Amino acid sequence: MKNMIVIAIALLTLLLTAACSASPNPEPSAGSASAGLPASLPKPDAAEQEALLASLAAIDPRLPSDTAVDKARRLCGRLLGQSPEDQLIAAAKAEFTGGDVPAVSDEDAQRVLSAIGANGFCR
Question: Is the pTM above the cut of 0.85?
Fold first, then answer.
């Protein structure tokens, strides 16, 4: 379990380092296009979306697939915006807690963030 956390932190560090060389995308704002998401947030293509949903289902099959892509896009904006790790974990927990998922653990939140970062669309 500790190895997974170390790997996830290393992946996030790598993603954040790569994001430093690009201009960060703005945080999502209310009233924006596409279900409240800014158009500038990265959006997965069909293959990336399918892989993302499969990755999230592997973490917890109860995670909502109908809203997962928008939730992942918002979290991607935070990843690219270089939010601190504790804020990223809190945001992932907030995004995916609810409905059939009574609570997302810190470990699952970290796994969600790693899945988003590894997917390829979040760049």
Answer: no
